[in-house]
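Bit of a strange request maybe. I'm writing a small parser for structure token strings and I need a real example to test against, not something I typed by hand. Could someone generate the tokens for this chain?
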Amino acid sequence: MIESNSESLTERDSFSVNLKRRQFLQFAGLSALAMGTVGCKKEKTDGIEPPYVNSDNTIDFKDDVGLLNYIYALEQLEAAFYTKAIESLPASFSPTQVLFFNDIKLHEIAHREFFKRILSTAAIGSLEFDFSSINFADAGSVFTAAKTFEDLGVAAYNDALLRCKNDYNLILLSQVATVEARHAAYVRSLVDALGFADLNELAALGADATNALDVSLAPGKVLEQASKYIKTKLNTINL
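Reply from user aminoacidic:
Good idea to test on real output. This should exercise your parser:
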């Protein structure tokens, strides 16, 4: 159960929270819905060769299948983090923060299940994670961890868009990337109200403030940072 030290919302405050939440969903959730609709369309195969079964969590960057599996692993990480966070959010979380964190959790779960579906038997398995370094009872620790995951995710998507070979997959990735960018902007505003778009702070993730370029990080560097939280061994090749 989520506890809160905040007083009950007045009718006016409740309307304001619901309006902000609807606006957040309008720009983030609807993109995921549109993405899911596109994902229902699959190219026909001749059925001659049996489908590839990814039995050893291999992420092979030689083609888009590996690229999508890489993104799928990161979406699993984010979904697991927000799911755990929602189970025991700090009492200092405001009602609005509780609503938005739950919305982000649902978005990340939708992203995870979407990539799992389109990858089918080529998908890596369900990963196990270690969040022991995060103090889920402290709001600052939760905000910082969320910022870390969202910034890293946006950096991964921006780089993946450049590596993608298939136009169809490019559309899919670009749609989810916009949702992740909104997550990152919101979470960063919780850490620093004026620093949600501070490119100087994001230089370590490939941002270039001088040329107004957003974060972008190669898969090897992203996985190196994410490996702290991923317990399952991933076999990465052709990086």
